[in-house]
Amino acid sequence: MSVVDSAVERVADSPVVSKDDLPLLLVLPGLFVFLAFMLFPVLYLVYLSFTNAEPATLFQGKEQWVGLANYATVLSDGQFWNSMGVTWLFVATSVALKVLVGLGIGLVVTGNRVRGKRFMRALIIIPLGLPGIFTITIWRGIFSSAEFGLANQFLRMAGLDSIAWLSERWMAFLAYNVTEAWLAYPFMVIITVSALQDVSEELHEAAMIDGAGFFARFLHVTLPSIKRPVLFASILTAAASFQQFLIPYVFNQGGPSRTNELLIVYGYREAFRFQKYGEGAAIMLVAVAVIGVFMMLNVKKGQLAEGVDDA
């Protein structure tokens, strides 16, 4: 018996601590560390959002209480609503792309006629092991507006003109989506492959006996069987897309002319570029509130928590 096991047994046998309280006792140290590094920053952010905090007053207690003025300023700013709209559009398009890519690759690597599936699965998860900033920088070079950019080289090979990818709004937005899909597709593939492996072969065989083709089996057997895990993964990756900062900031800082400035980039710019920490804090809290409502509504509508209370 190890030292840890003997210590746990001694604690469990203690008259002060019952066995029912033991799990909570073991979780408390980690919970304390989590609260120390998460709860205090969030509470301080809430405080800053009600003040006129600036770099000169930060952590010195010299900021003045302004109430809801920061929120009123933010909600009346046209740039805020542009950022909110672009962010939701980015979430919708990037999630759709990630689901399609993940589902397509998942079907390939679980196909009965595909050889080398284990090797392919190992290659698929490689992007998960690379630093995000490294990958994004590489994709920025791919979408470079210069002639040597890889995307432009492919266009010239196809006899097309080069594109100023990061200087045109919707071309830059497309580049955001492609890069986001590359970063997130391994996660989607892992979830999709796990779900596809749990689809009953008997259902497929019964559908084949009834004369159903591949697409009919996919629509009426495969999709209903993998709906919940794929929906769960989509909600998680949608929340990540909503908080995306590195891609727009590294590519062109939300440009051109702030037209593609996602909400987190907008909050960062207000806080650190324009030195308005109070307004920046208000923007971030609005983002947190929107993400929280989005997650709760989707979990409830998708019935993803069904059966949790009964476990």
TrEMBL record:
Domain ABC transmembrane type-1: 84-298
A Pfam family per the record: BPD_transp_1
Domain of life per record: Archaea
Keywords recorded for this protein, A-Z: Cell membrane, Membrane, Transmembrane, Transmembrane helix, Transport
Gene Ontology cellular-component terms listed: plasma membrane
Gene Ontology biological process terms, A to Z: transmembrane transport
Membrane topology: Multi-pass membrane protein
Localization per record: Cell membrane
Stretches that traverse the bilayer: 24-47, 86-110, 122-142, 173-194, 281-299
Family, similarity comment: Belongs to the binding-protein-dependent transport system permease family.
Protein name, UniProt field: Maltose ABC transporter permease
